[in-house]
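In response to the reviewer comment on reproducibility (Comment 2.3), we provide here a single inverse folding case reported in full, input and output, so that an independent group could reproduce the run without further information from us. The structure tokens appear first.
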């Protein structure tokens, strides 16, 4: 607690919506007043907070990482970068600060070091929130001597969202590290139609960075009591990044395929469109990681560019394209089956899975040439499937 007593001198503000005690988090932390959320790795606990409720310290019982969250209305600062710089100065922290645009807002970032009771290194970010003049400030760090914590730190900060309408987009640190490089043309063949679309030139590299980052974090939970929740977060974080990179592709595919199906099939257009996407990914070339140290997941930008993929990549791709149209779609994963499938709430005959919202979603198998609603008998035990819903 001595470390936080020192940090308390750094905190001073007014109100916030949070009101929890020593809780362990396995779901996103959401602030409805200031309009931001954090989908932090599982197990973080509140270790202290200021009486005004504007500053919190989170610690992790298994990993030597500390997260500080502060809401500030720094009247002296003219930008997010200045807010960050001023607060790091109060901590006598060293490190350059930079500014960049993310979620349509100018944000600040720093890779810093500081000495309190010992030496610490980490990352810090600031971003404007919904309430004018206020910023969310996040500092995430570990003892300098504890090597190997940086991926966990970056994943934690990268989970910030400051606009629910822009949730499915690359995270704040990923966006800073991989700025746009311009369009790269891609041609797709779906139901015999040649569809021209594009991704950013940096998307394949950036999305692989996120996959590798989140896989490293996931491995920390292999024997953890929250392994299931960690697995769900792994796919949520990848989806958030990858789906945001495919908005143009989703629009181009939809505009090329759906209107004709709507004219021809009317009420059955949704399931016909879903089947067109399912058939398309079923014909992708198969590929898995060559090493156990690598994720089997092929990023969505790489998958549509022709890189081989497996069941989870294909299932997420179908989910992203259908979700874009407003058709609620998710994926199911299974440790016992070492498999993943896509599910959607389109009314259609066939095998279904009851999701956490109580609705029946129809199965979609992406590695065999079958239609929606069909699943092999040796994969039919519903208790062995874990649902992963996306925003």
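Designed residues, in position order:
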């Amino acid at each position: 607690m001595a470390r936080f007593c020192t940090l308390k001198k750094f905190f001073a503000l007014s109100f916030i919506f949070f009101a929890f005690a020593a809780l362990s988090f396995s779901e996103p932390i959401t602030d409805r007043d200031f309009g931001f959320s954090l989908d932090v790795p599982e197990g973080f606990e509140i270790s202290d907070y200021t009486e005004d409720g504007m500053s919190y310290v989170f610690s992790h019982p298994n990993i030597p990482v500390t997260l500080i969250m502060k809401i500030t209305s720094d009247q002296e600062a003219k930008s997010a970068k200045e807010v960050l710089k001023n607060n790091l100065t109060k901590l006598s922290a060293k490190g350059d600060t930079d500014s960049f645009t993310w979620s349509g807002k100018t944000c600040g970032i720093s890779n810093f070091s500081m000495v309190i009771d010992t030496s610490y290194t980490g990352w810090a970010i600031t971003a404007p929130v919904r309430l004018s003049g206020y910023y969310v400030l996040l500092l995430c760090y570990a003892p300098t001597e504890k090597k190997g914590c940086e991926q966990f730190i970056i994943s934690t900060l990268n989970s910030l969202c400051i606009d629910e309408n822009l949730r499915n987009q690359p995270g704040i640190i990923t966006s800073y590290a991989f700025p746009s490089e311009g369009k790269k043309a891609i041609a797709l063949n779906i139901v015999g139609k040649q569809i021209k679309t594009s991704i950013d030139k940096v998307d394949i590299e950036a999305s692989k960075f996120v996959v590798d980052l989140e896989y490293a974090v996931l491995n920390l939970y292999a024997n953890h009591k929250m392994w299931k929740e960690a697995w769900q977060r792994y796919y949520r974080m990848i989806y958030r990044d990858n789906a945001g990179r495919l908005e143009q592709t989703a629009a181009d595919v939809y505009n090329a395929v759906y209107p004709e199906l709507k004219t021809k099939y009317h009420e059955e257009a949704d399931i016909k469109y879903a089947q067109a996407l399912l058939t398309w990914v079923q014909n992708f070339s198969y590929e898995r990681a060559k090493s156990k140290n690598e994720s089997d997941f092929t990023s969505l930008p790489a998958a549509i560019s022709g890189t081989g993929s497996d069941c989870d990549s294909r299932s997420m791709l179908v989910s992203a394209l259908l979700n874009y149209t407003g058709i609620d779609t998710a994926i199911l994963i299974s440790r016992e089956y070492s498999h993943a499938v896509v599910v959607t709430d389109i009314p259609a005959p066939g095998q279904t899975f009851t999701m956490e919202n109580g609705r029946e979603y129809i199965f979609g198998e992406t590695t065999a040439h079958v239609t929606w609603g069909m699943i092999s008998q040796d994969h039919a035990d519903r208790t062995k499937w874990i649902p992963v819903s996306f925003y």
